[in-house]
């Protein structure tokens, strides 16, 4: 139901992200429909948008389609068009083949191409223009993630009246890595257009501040960054929280701090209580041949997730006879992602080769060692899988947060199940009672997997209870409220320094 008025309305809250909460899908007969889009960002923001009258600006997931503003389940949506070339150079290229590997500690080699950068600038401008067009006077605009790092400054330039927030959903790398980027100064300038810049971990915020000091020479005081004001700039008079620095020069202050994201924990609990979902969980175990232990991995098929390390550890445990495929099954859900990017194609081939080898060597007609699923599933099925899994394996080599770990914990209303969690995820800062692992240490990972399989019920409950307290208290509503609170206070010239 397209609403032609939407574009001319002015909104007090504008969300800007590369991907919309819904993806346009066109079937063979040319019939178009919408389905929920993948990734943690959407899962985190959707509940907040349902409860507020804002607008969401983003890309609909298909190239070359001009789509009018519309409403999707209570959410006002204003699509931004990407051409096939934008898709290749801005999305697949600069976002996912330059920034993504760079920001994830160069697990894969980033590609640096000047044409990709130019398209990234051009597309960021398009998003900024779209936001400038729909934002009411003094509105709050919240920009998301690495695809749109230039938007805050572009927006401030044309609309200095706006309160601008930016949240980085992925890690921000240490300076020694970040400094590889040929456009490292432009990105910093882009981000510093915001009033508040949010990161997942305290370490990410620290990495960012250090990059600001090294590349721009600006002063920082804890989470506050002092950005000198160019008094020749006509917009300079409209800046908020202007103060003087130690040398008496005019500066505006920007807050850069950790706001660890979370999930709608109640929604997962509610699903876990449903009898039909519990029945489905039992059915899943049956379909797997009723193994004593079900282990589970759930990831977008991405090289940051450490799926290969997980399979290596599992394969070795089977080879050494320390686990037996008659008794233990590993379910690996690997949802398709960024399939036209070469590194992702190679990863898929490697993972599927490894799964085939393990199953060929250790499986039998009745028991597959690895039940591998290259699909995305609806939330109901995911909750049934979480309920069916005795051990959840999160072995990411680098991950901004990892919401799967939190989903597993929220789902386990029975206070059972063991979470094995990589210390290279943002989630490991909070989820200290998980079995924390270094995925590069295959021997250590193997020992921990065995520990998880053998853990007595009493210990499982004790750990899961503590984990659940964390996830149920720090849910996504609290996350968005605390970020928006920091933004609103910043509009009044006040920067909250501590986590509320
Ligand atoms: C991560 C990123 C998101 C992204 C999602 C899915 O969660 O932080 O920005 O939307 O992955 O990736 P995709 O490239 O399909 O949007």
What's a quick, concise take on this entry?
By secondary structure, the protein is an alpha/beta fold. The protein has 16 helices and 19 strands.
Described by strand count, sense and barrel closure, the largest sheet is: 11 strands, mixed
User: What would you call the shape?
Assistant: globular
Mean pLDDT: 93
**Structural class by SSE content:** alpha/beta
Bound molecules: 6-O-phosphono-alpha-D-glucopyranose
**Tally the helices: what do you get?**
16
* Annotation, overall tally of beta strands: 19
Kindly, what is the distance between the CA atoms of the first and last residues, rounded to a whole number of angstroms?
39 Å
Strand content: 15-25%
- Round the Cα radius of gyration to an integer and report it: 23 Å
How much helix is in the residues? 40-55%
* Low-pLDDT residue intervals, each spanning 5 or more residues: 1-7
């Amino acid at each position: 139901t397209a609403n032609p008025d939407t574009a001319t309305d002015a909104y007090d809250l504008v969300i800007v992200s590369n991907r919309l909460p819904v993806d346009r899908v066109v079937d063979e007969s040319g019939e178009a429909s919408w389905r929920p889009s993948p990734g943690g960002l959407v899962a985190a923001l959707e509940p907040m948008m349902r409860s507020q009258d804002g607008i969401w600006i983003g890309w609909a997931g298909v190239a070359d389609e001009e789509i009018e503003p519309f409403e999707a389940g209570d959410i006002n949506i204003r699509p931004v068009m990407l051409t096939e070339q934008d898709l290749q150079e801005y999305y697949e290229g600069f976002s996912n083949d330059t920034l993504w590997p760079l920001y994830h500690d160069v697990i894969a080699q980033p590609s640096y191409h000047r044409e990709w950068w130019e398209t990234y600038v051009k597309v960021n401008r398009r998003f900024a223009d779209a936001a400038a067009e729909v934002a009411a006077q003094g509105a709050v605009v919240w920009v998301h993630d690495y695809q749109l790092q230039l938007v805050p400054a572009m927006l401030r330039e044309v609309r200095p009246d706006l309160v601008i927030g930016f949240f980085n959903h992925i890690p921000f790398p240490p300076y020694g890595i970040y400094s590889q980027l040929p456009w490292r100064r432009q990105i910093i300038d882009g981000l510093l257009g915001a009033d508040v810049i949010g990161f997942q971990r305290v370490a990410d915020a620290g990495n960012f501040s250090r990059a600001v000091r090294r590349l721009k020479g600006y002063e920082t005081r804890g989470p506050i960054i002092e950005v000198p004001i160019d008094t020749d700039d006509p917009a300079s008079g409209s800046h908020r929280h202007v103060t003087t620095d130690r040398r008496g020069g005019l500066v505006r202050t920007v807050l850069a701090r950790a706001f660890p994201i979370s999930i709608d924990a109640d929604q997962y609990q509610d699903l876990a209580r449903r009898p039909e979902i519990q029945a489905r969980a039992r059915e899943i175990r049956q379909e797997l041949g009723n193994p004593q232990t079900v282990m589970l991995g759930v990831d977008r098929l991405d090289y940051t997730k450490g799926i290969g390390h997980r399979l290596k550890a599992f394969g070795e445990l089977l080879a050494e006879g320390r686990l037996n495929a008659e008794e233990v099954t590993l379910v690996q859900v690997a949802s398709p992602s960024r399939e036209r990017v070469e590194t992702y194609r190679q990863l898929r081939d490697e993972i599927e080769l490894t799964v085939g080898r393990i199953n060929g060597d250790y499986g039998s007609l009745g028991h597959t060692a690895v039940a591998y699923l290259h699909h995305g599933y609806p939330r109901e099925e995911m909750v049934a899988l979480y309920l069916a899994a005795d051990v959840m394996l999160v072995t990411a080599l680098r991950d901004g947060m990892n919401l799967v770990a939190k989903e597993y914990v929220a789902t386990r209303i029975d206070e059972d199940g063991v979470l094995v969690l990589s210390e290279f995820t943002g989630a490991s800062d909070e989820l200290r009672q998980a079995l924390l692992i270094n995925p590069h240490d295959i021997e250590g990972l193997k020992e921990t997997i065995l520990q998880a399989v053998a853990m007595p019920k009493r210990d499982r409950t004790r750990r899961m209870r503590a984990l659940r307290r964390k996830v149920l208290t720090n849910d996504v509503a609290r996350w968005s409220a605390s970020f928006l609170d920091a933004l609103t206070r910043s509009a009044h010239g006040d920067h909250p320094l501590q986590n509320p």
